[in-house]
């Protein structure tokens, strides 16, 4: 059996892997090595970040991660873009729920239970007050040909946002494009309906522009500068369970010259980090083209594969392989990314 591991993460990944085993701002720059050979490595330091400008996006496991990060750090975040993800804490830390409820929608998602978890976490101060979320701007995308995360799961996320008080006018949802399970662009990737590596599809739909436009309002598209894409060390406080040794960051020319800039974090999906697809995700989502002209710093944290029966395919943790705090500020991946964003100058509360 050949496993499309991005198409089936969480429990399906584990089960099928058992079968497959038998068949200007003065940046301190240095050089890095494989798989980012030749890419300049920047030492993280404070940049001139616009207050209250942090946003997130993600695809698949990265979509679930983006939602987790949005909810946990809602005081600093202004919006989120989610491709083929699902509700906060959808898996409830259980592989069976990740599979049955949050991917193939064989069972309904109990949004009331998830709301209780949000309230509990807020009362324990392991996430920011949930009242902040009603002010967020949201972009959502689910393709009609997505057989990995059923479109009904994204519709449940829409309902969760509404339960949290996000006005319908603040939610830009696209659920009618015949796309497979992928980040969507208008100039790069597989045919629109395909579900396969690198999990980027050309659907004549500018996904990166739609995400940042929905969150920030009017944005313009420019030409991304390859020299403005750097790696950074994911070590010490910038490292969490199964995180790769390097992450990526796109710093527009103006932001390197001390212009005040916004900041966005984008989470790749399973088998979509640099250790799997090299730089395809960090170069071809359409985010950098908007970022360069619109003065938005884009951070691309990276996860690689872990243990065979927990995270064999480099997924972000939305099903508790790193521990039961995976979805709040005490989760190792959540804290690592928050520490990085704070070190860059964001007003995030860690």
TrEMBL record:
Gene3D superfamilies named in the record: alpha/beta hydrolase (3.40.50.1820)
GO molecular function terms noted in the UniProt entry: hydrolase activity
Gene Ontology CC annotations of this record: extracellular region
Pfam families listed in its UniProt record: Esterase_PHB
Keywords assigned by UniProt, alphabetized: Hydrolase, Signal
Matches recorded under SUPFAM superfamilies: alpha/beta-Hydrolases
InterPro entries: AB_hydrolase_fold, Esterase_phb
Signal peptide start-end: 1-24
Name of this chain's protein: Fibronectin, type-like protein
């Amino acid at each position: 059996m050949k496993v499309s591991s991005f198409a089936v993460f969480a429990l399906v990944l584990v089960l099928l892997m058992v079968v497959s085993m038998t068949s200007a701002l003065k940046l301190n720059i240095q050089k890095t090595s494989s798989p980012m050979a030749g890419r300049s490595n920047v030492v993280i330091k404070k940049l001139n970040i616009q207050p209250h400008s942090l946003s997130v996006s993600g695809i698949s496991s990265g979509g679930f991660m983006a939602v987790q990060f949005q909810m946990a750090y809602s005081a600093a975040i202004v919006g989120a873009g989610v491709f083929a993800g699902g509700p906060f804490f959808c898996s409830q830390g259980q592989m069976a729920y990740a599979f049955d409820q949050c991917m193939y929608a064989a069972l309904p998602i109990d949004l009331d239970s998830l709301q209780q978890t949000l309230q509990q976490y807020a009362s324990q101060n392991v996430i920011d007050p949930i009242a902040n979320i009603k002010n967020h701007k949201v972009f959502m995308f689910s393709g009609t040909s997505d057989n990995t995360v059923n479109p009904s799961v994204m519709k449940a996320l829409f309902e969760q946002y509404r339960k949290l008080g996000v006005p319908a006018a603040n939610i830009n949802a696209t659920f009618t494009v015949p796309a497979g399970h992928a980040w969507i662009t208008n100039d790069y990737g597989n045919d629109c309906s395909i579900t396969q590596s690198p999990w980027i599809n050309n659907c004549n739909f500018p996904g990166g522009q739609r995400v940042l436009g929905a969150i920030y309002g009017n944005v313009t598209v420019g030409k991304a500068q390859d020299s403005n894409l750097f790696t950074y060390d994911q070590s010490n406080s910038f490292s969490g369970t199964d995180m790769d040794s390097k992450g990526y960051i796109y710093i527009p020319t103006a932001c390197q010259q001390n212009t005040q800039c916004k900041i966005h974090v984008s989470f790749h999906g399973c088998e979509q980090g640099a250790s799997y697809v090299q730089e395809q995700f960090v170069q071809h989502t359409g985010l950098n083209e908007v970022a360069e002209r619109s003065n938005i710093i884009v951070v691309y944290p990276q996860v690689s594969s872990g243990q065979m029966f927990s995270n064999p395919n480099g997924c972000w943790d939305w099903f508790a392989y790193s521990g039961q705090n995976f979805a709040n500020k005490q989760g190792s991946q959540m804290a690592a990314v928050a520490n990085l964003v704070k070190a860059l100058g964001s007003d995030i509360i860690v």
